[in-house]
Write a structure and sequence with these properties.
Layout: H1 8-51, E1 67-69, E2 72-74, H2 79-103, H3 108-124, H4 134-162, H5 168-195, H6 204-229, H7 237-240, H8 247-261, H9 266-296, H10 301-329, H11 331-351, H12 357-383, H13 391-404, H14 407-420, H15 423-428, H16 431-442, H17 446-453
Antiparallel strand pairs: 1-2
Helix pairs in contact: 1-4, 1-5, 1-6, 2-4, 2-8, 2-13, 3-4, 3-6, 4-13, 5-6, 5-10, 5-12, 9-12, 9-13, 9-14, 9-16, 10-11, 10-12, 11-12, 11-16
Length: 461
């Protein structure tokens, strides 16, 4: 008599395919709004507010007046950085509590979609940020960034629920790859609209507002796929029984307990500190690359835009490549190789010749290959080191450390530039973050961390 076929792998693949779409959905906002269009547009609006209203497409504004923001005098050019920093710090404070709530909520796909749609709603408010109305832009970016971080915690917590330990690296890498592809496609469309706005019969400001609105709509629309297709998993009752009270009381109690118990998961804690360093290095390289390309190497906007697009699409293949390598060699080894490549990138940047496009594009190619892979594998590797039933809580610390310490790299970059007057040593100094992160990661005993978390070890670690 034949046995009953095991349909669990088919179910997991179906869930994984649905899960990929959330990376596709939110990456449009990250690339089009947060990375490319928001800051320069917001500076223009803030300048008009500080200096007096001028038409949306005025190019001749020359004013040194400051904004009065809650009693503080803020230069218009610094406003986006302050807004993003505020939302980042606020996320770092709130996300750990959110993780405790999410682990006590069976309807994780509902939480994911709720935060996504709220974030897209905030992002859509950027359509009304025009003239001198910078305040609505501030509300929009703070709210959207908070909701993006919250949805990322829930989304990452779903990963261990829809994949076995052997599948994590592949699934996480495909999600990142899908995100880069989706974000790159919409960014390409929007950059065509903004660059050739005259051909479409509109001004620059209108083209930017339409592009930012399209990212909000994209984020909201494609979130319907995981919302409709993902299945919620039952809560592990053993976790819920350990803290008394309602969901908020349980969540605060769970958060306090986890803070005390982190010492029981030393490998997970060591990895979190390693991630703090090397991810800060990655984020600072990405954030400073356009400034480095323009101010140090002398490239114009068209070259920088082309490089950004190239990095997006190369990162799609890079994430898939790193995922396959991890299946063969283990995530930790592949991440360490990725960090060596990052060290090579910032070292190369120290000597990169000015106004020579081929070396600059080759460096962008290297960034694209390693960018998605290291981040995707960091997510899947960490999932092996955290206990079942508390995925959201631990991933909330993962994201909180990312946001709460993300200013280390930019501060280092700025201080070195201040002292030397050159972006070359500033970007090279970031090698310290990759070295420290790599050394700490090398100390993580993967097998021990998996045992401490009570997980099954994948075939290759």
């Amino acid at each position: 008599m034949g046995g009953v076929a095991d349909l669990r792998p088919l179910h997991r693949r179906s869930q994984q395919r649905a899960w990929y779409w959330y990376d596709w959905a939110n990456s449009a906002y990250v690339t089009t709004v947060a990375t490319v269009l928001f800051a320069p547009y917001m500076i223009t609006v803030a300048e008009k507010a500080a200096c007096g209203f001028i038409s949306d497409d005025d190019k001749g504004l020359d004013c040194t007046a400051h904004l009065d923001v809650l009693g503080l005098s803020i230069a218009p050019g610094a406003l986006p950085a302050y807004l993003i920093t505020f939302s980042t710090v606020l996320s770092a404070l709130l996300l750990p509590l959110l993780g405790a709530v999410a682990d006590r909520t069976a309807n994780k796909k509902g939480m994911l979609a709720g935060f996504a749609w709220a974030g897209a709603g905030f992002a859509s408010l950027l359509w009304f940020c025009r003239g001198d109305n910078w305040e609505i832009g501030a509300v929009a970016i703070i709210g959207a960034n908070l909701c993006l971080g919250a949805s990322a915690v829930v989304n990452d917590a779903i990963l261990p629920l829809i994949s076995t330990e052997d599948e994590r690296d592949r699934v996480s890498s495909r999600g990142w790859a899908f995100g880069y592809l989706g974000g790159g496609i919409l960014l390409l469309i929007n950059l065509i609209l903004v660059t050739f706005h005259d051909s479409f019969g509109m001004g620059t400001a209108l083209a930017v507002r339409i592009s930012m609105l399209s990212a909000a709509i994209w984020w909201a629309a494609f979130t319907f796929i995981p919302f409709l297709k993902l299945k919620n998993e039952p809560l592990p009752q053993r976790e819920l029984a350990q803290v008394e009270g309602g969901i908020l009381a349980q969540s605060f109690g769970q958060l306090w307990r986890t803070l005390k118990e982190l010492r029981n998961y030393p490998m997970a804690l060591t990895f979190l500190v390693a991630y703090l360093f090397f991810n800060d290095g990655i984020q600072t390289v990405i954030a400073s690359s356009s400034v480095y390309g323009e101010k140090q190497l002398g490239f114009g906007t068209s070259v920088l835009i082309a490089t950004i697009l190239m990095v997006q699409f190369v990162a799609f293949g890079g994430a898939l490549l790193f995922g396959r390598a991890a299946e063969r060699y283990g995530a930790k080894r592949v991440i360490l190789v990725g960090l060596l490549i990052w060290m090579g990138i910032v070292t190369t940047a120290l000597f990169l010749p000015a106004e020579q496009i081929v070396p600059f594009l080759l460096m962008g190619l290297a960034i694209g290959i390693v960018l998605g892979g290291t981040q995707a594998l960091a997510r899947s590797y960490f999932s092996l080191l955290i206990p079942r039933g508390r995925e959201a809580e631990f991933f909330s610390f993962y994201h909180a450390m990312d946001r709460g310490t993300s200013w280390f790299g930019t501060l280092t970059f700025g201080v070195v530039y201040q002292l030397t007057g050159s972006y070359r040593p500033a970007i090279f100094t970031l090698i310290v973050f990759f070295v420290i992160g790599g050394l700490l990661l090398a100390k993580v005993d993967t097998a021990r961390g998996i045992r401490e978390a009570g997980n099954m070890a994948p075939d290759v670690i």
